[in-house]
What does this fold into?
Amino acid sequence: MQKINLQKIKLVETFVNFYLSKDEISDKFFKSDIEWFATGLTMTEFEACKSVAEDLYMKEVSNNDN
It folds into this structure.
């Protein structure tokens, strides 16, 4: 079983917060955090985290529409 990587979890969480963000100040903060948490990851790992975040965001948006 693969060990849980907190860096990847925080990256996914930050992406979701960025997608949910409504203002430019928060956007800049989240973009900075995305760069920070992505440091050291491979492009494949980064893209996987981004994909998971997009899926979670879509679920959140669809739940709020109901």
About this structure: The mean pLDDT is 92. The first helix runs from residue 6 to 20. The CA atoms of residues 31 and 48 lie 17 Å apart. The radius of gyration is 13 Å.
